[in-house]
Amino acid sequence: MKKIMLLPLCLFFTMNRLVPQTNAKNSGIDLMLVRGEYERAIDTCKLILAADSLNPEIYYKLGIAYQNSLDEEQSLDCYYKASRLNPESNVYNFSLAKAYYTQGKFSLAEPILLNLNSLDSTKWLYAYYLSSIYMQSEKYDDALDIYDRFLSNDSTNCVYLDKTAFAYLKGGYYDDAINLYNKSLSIKKKNLTAIKNLSFLYASTMNPDTAIQILTMGIEIDSTDKDLYIRRAQINYSKNYTKRAMDDYLFLLASGDSSKLYLKRTGIGYSYNFQPKEAIRYLLLAYKADSSDYETCSFLGQCYYKIKDMKSSIYFYKKVQEILRPIYSQVGLTHYLCADSQRDNGNYKDAIDSYLKAFAINSDPNINMIIANIYDEKLNNKGRAISYYQRFLNSQKSSKMKFPPAYIEKIEKRLEYLKKSPVK
Questions:
Q1: Do 153 and 127 contact (CB within 8 A), yes or no?
Q2: How many domains does the chain divide into?
Q3: What CATH number is attached to the domain comprising 16?
Q4: Number of Cβ atoms within 10 Å of the Cβ of 100
Q5: Using CA atoms, how far apart are residues 371 and 374, in angstroms rounded to an integer?
């Protein structure tokens, strides 16, 4: 009980002693921050602020302590108060802008960074965060204005070269990006970021072989970087270099990444390399991971056929049919709907082509009637009209979908009339 009563008195005397010793206490807080004693620093700052609530420097240090304690909200609040109490301080304003940036509040960070950048356009730290906001907001030309300014003053700085090149890449200026990344790579031979982005650029500009060469160079620099293997395997696979792609996928699998895509493409590589038994091993693992992948099932059907296991081959080919049936039916329906639109738009020949594609999939007898009507009423082609009316009537003998007798009789009469009429 005595301790509880003494505590407020101790706090009172402590706070009073803090006021005339601000500089000493500030140095003490700095030492706590350096040592990583963040909780002590927070408590000390709070004691000082209880006596001096308008001290921006203490709010700033408290913000640093909270930031290192991973309390972003409290940290931001402290930086905000420091900035409001001393709006002329670039340090406080930048800390606030950076806190906004970290939390993704770009609209609040941007005006502060714009002001700081206008005060000192040579400070890379301000430019870095402002340009990063522009890049994430897809304002690539604005970012390029900043990067070009720094690059013009230091044309061999790989940071500036890479940043500018990436802005060109994102903005779709691929040739400019390629030139800058190559310049960066000529200065810094082991620049893996430049190598990866160059591989993308060359692959995107129809130079896949160059992209593969650059990625191979990257792998020679760092043979543990899996991303390089992933990129090279993807490009090789897209070029149908399935054996080369398989070697990279095998490396990725050996490194512990058992992605179903890597398993499938390894199996496909073995299949094209005339090693069906090895292919089946990996394809079955891919099938276990995703039994709805028709490509995996199709290659399993092929590989089992090659080793004369017809029962398994049939099983997987039927799986392919089962997987694709809903899609195949949807394609038929889409042909039909497209044909309706083409017919109503007066594109009768195109409509007939689409109806025939739909019929090849779903064998709907009514399609014969629709085509017959187009030839009869729109194109005045009696010969074709007779042919499709007859097909419709013939289909009624075995069709499960029966039309009313009166409707059939009407079609028969129209068919007879056309047969008797002279062909013009």
A1: no
A2: 2
A3: 1.25.40.10
A4: 23
A5: 5
